[in-house]
């Protein structure tokens, strides 16, 4: 498979994946999501690859789901909520599961903003580094009248605790890379110019490490006695489908496309 929305390169034992829609701030459309799933499956089937480095081209890691594209235009016979739910179940959730269940360590280098679903994607990493200029923001509710998805409702309470997770989701205030490190959301905040050298060094180090041990370490941490990610993803998709039929979501999309502040009515 040839990739157009991302780049894929094998560097010795490390798979290097770069989101490559910089003109759209690497917004996640179905093409990019499909390629992310395909590249995860390629990595999983290649025993030679023992670590992954995921990053993005341009000035943002990912601005979230691509609401300016064609993926979320309503179609006859489906409500907007049904379209959202189907897109999550058929495209987004399988991609997240494919990345989360990779047997090899995943290093994520966050350059610039990681917003909404883009933040969720970053959190599938086993080790997440962020440039000091990077920010994390849960814009689902404040900007779109939706709830966190793609696993954010699974990861956030486990990483930063319920109180902080709720505040991030309800308020949508940006979290700096330095604060994200202090909160335990990410592994490390580094100077911008050091992001890729450190991320590449970590990925090479993991690629040279005990792969079987790493696989089991991931498994034991990922299967904590709590909701499984697949269960949480199903819950998110069901609730998101309901929210997708609200007037507030329709208003959020219109405001986003019109580059204005949304005017929510709680409906």
Biggest sheet descriptor? 6 strands, mixed
Helical run tally: 11
Give the oligomer, counting copies of the same chain as homo and different chains as hetero. single chain
Cα gyration radius (Å)? 18 Å
Report the sheet-strand fraction: 15-25%
How does the helix and strand content classify structurally?
alpha/beta
Can you say what the CATH homologous superfamily is? 2-enoyl-CoA Hydratase, Chain A, domain 1
What's the CATH class, please? Alpha Beta
Query: Which spans of ≥5 residues are poorly predicted at pLDDT below 50?
Result: none
Which strand order does the major sheet show?
1-2-3-5-7-10
Q: Quick one: overall form?
A: globular
What is the helix fraction of residues, given as a range? 40-55%
Taken together, the total number of domains comes to 1
Number of strands: 10
Structure description:
The protein is of the alpha/beta class and 267 residues long. The model has no long low-confidence stretch (mean pLDDT 92). It has one domain (6-192, 219-258): 2-enoyl-CoA Hydratase, Chain A, domain 1 (Alpha-Beta Complex), CATH 3.90.226. It is globular, with a radius of gyration of 18 Å. Helix 1 (30-44) runs parallel beside helix 2, helix 2 packs antiparallel against helix 10 and helix 5 crosses helix 6. 47% of the residues lie in helices and 16% in strands. The strands form two sheets. The chain has a six-stranded mixed β-sheet with strand order 1-2-3-5-7-10, sandwiched between helices. A four-stranded mixed β-sheet has the order 4-6-8-9.
Can you tag this structure with a few keywords?
267 residues, alpha/beta, 2-enoyl-CoA Hydratase, Chain A, domain 1, 6-stranded mixed sheet, 4-stranded mixed sheet, 11 helices, 10 strands, globular
